[in-house]
Amino acid sequence: MTSGAVTESLPRPAGLGRWPLYYGWVNLGVAAAAMVGTLPGRTQGLGLVTEPLLQDMGLGRVAFAQVNLVATLVGSLFCLGIGRLVDRLGSRLVLTVLAAALGVVVLGMSRVTGLVGLVLFVTLTRGLGQSALSVVSLTMVGKWFAKRLDVAMGVYAVVMSVGFMIAFPVVGGVVQSQGWRSAWAGVGMALLAGLAPFAWLFARRTPEAVGLSIDGETVAAEGPAPPDAAELTGATPGEALRTPAFWVFALSAAVYGLVASGIALFNESVLAEQGFDAGTYYKSLVITALLALLGNFGGGLLSRLWSPRRLLMIAMALLAGALAGLPFVTREIHVVLYAAVMGIAGGFVMVLFFSFWGQAYGRAHLGRIQGLAQILTVLASAVGPLVLAQSMALTGSYAIAFFALAVVVAVLGLLAALVPVPRLASAY
Q1: DSSP class of 233
Q2: Which residue, 210, 231, 252, sits at the end of a domain?
Q3: Which one, of 420, 149, 145, lies nearest residue 300 by Cα?
Q4: pTM of the full structure
Q5: Which stretch, 83-97, 114-128, 337-351, has highest mean pLDDT?
Q6: What's the CA gap between 393 and 278, in Å, rounded?
Q7: What is the CATH number of the domain that holds 178?
């Protein structure tokens, strides 16, 4: 074992091989809970407290948009290095520390009174949540599954989506009844006293570290012989970056993130431009969430039958169609169709983003490779609201932005049809 590696083991690792359930599924559950824990650092989570926060602190929308942009851009830097820490130290330690740190930060934000403090705490929630904790969560599943990674990521996406569907209305309800500060304090305590100890108790580094082999076969009768990350096989980050597939898949996910973040922040305004009220906006959120769940499940199943390229092509075609059609939405049935297509496309993209890196590039440096892909999505999510806001400011409509983005998405879909996808034997 090389210097600096940290061994994670359970009291009786060999016993895990006799479990009726492969321990990777337990690890998957922890990973999904960790992704739900990123809520305060995501645009949708921050959107739950935006309006009362602006009123409480006397901030304008432009000022808050600038705070969000700076926070997201700086927070994206937290993606750098976190993958290396997971590869070297293991997910158990890194996830526990991150969850506790994010909890402390969210508690601090619940007491913020000035603009400087707000910038600091929003930046840290973005960095620790949307960036670092997301990378750890995604990497955890890729470390435990190989041949079943597509199915595992489909299950992960479904569990995670259900978690968000529960968390959003719960937190939103507390915001409405007790105020944003109480809601944020509750989220902070849930991270600090809930997710952090949960991660320490149940998260584990790799199957080999607990006496199992990848995908579930027992390899040790008495105890583990955990490998160092360097002994696992797969492409290096540099090798991954030199493949066109990395850029096509990463940029596709990033552009989807740009679209999703922009629409998430201004969705009510987008639909109001088309003549719909707030009630229609809330209905569209429910439809998108439910169909995204279906997209997660369907994407996981279809990935067993189709290549990643085909699934990405379909996702991009759906997304391009939804964007191009949105300016022409005039009836409520159109909103339903738009929300449904956006949800399915998002579900497909989510499954691909979760599963592609481990399938194509192996496990040895998975944390760092996923970290590089994640930083692109975080940067894009910072730009998304600005793109829509500028379109509205310059033209008086969001339509130009949607048409331009539809073209970009369509081009990425065409590139997905042409790009060769690595399929490393060493990935398994």
Answers
A1: -
A2: 231
A3: 149
A4: 0.71
A5: 114-128
A6: 22
A7: 1.20.1250.20
